[in-house]
Amino acid sequence: PPVSVSGAASSYPWWFDVETANSWQTGTIGQAMNVADLQGMVAGLQAVGATTMGVYSTSSQWGSITGGWQAGLPVWIPGAKTLSGAKSNCKLSSFTGGKVTLTQWSGRIDSDYACS
Predict the structure, then answer these.
(1) ∠ at Cα 23 (58, 5), nearest 5°?
(2) Which residues, other chains included, contact 30 with Cβ-Cβ below 8 Å and sequence gap of 6+?
(3) To the nearest whole number, what is the mean pLDDT of the chain?
(4) Residues sharing a CB contact under 8 Å with residue 52, sequence separation 6 or more, in sequence order
(5) Would the pLDDT of 108 be above 90?
(6) How far is CA 53 from CA 42, 49, 74, in A?
(7) CA pair distance 80, 89, nearest whole angstrom
């Protein structure tokens, strides 16, 4: 049978995938454009009722793409190789000024760890 899902933006967490493999602008002007793009995404989602938004990235990629913009958004950090590494990554400083809320580790499949 069909599954019913809510169409309301507020029903879901929204994660912005900010990785250099994606199509972000480069250079100082590009970083300003990327920040404006992210600000527009946040404003657009807030306008339709979304309340939970965050960034999936690394410190290095975030810095390269946004110039280190302090967005204040929660962070989901990939890159650990083990569960203990993912737990340890919860203690990393947030590169957005928000809280580190999730970390990812890659074993046979990618898994996530919720930071407390």
Answers:
(1) 80
(2) 24
(3) 96
(4) 12, 13, 14
(5) no
(6) 8, 11, 7
(7) 8
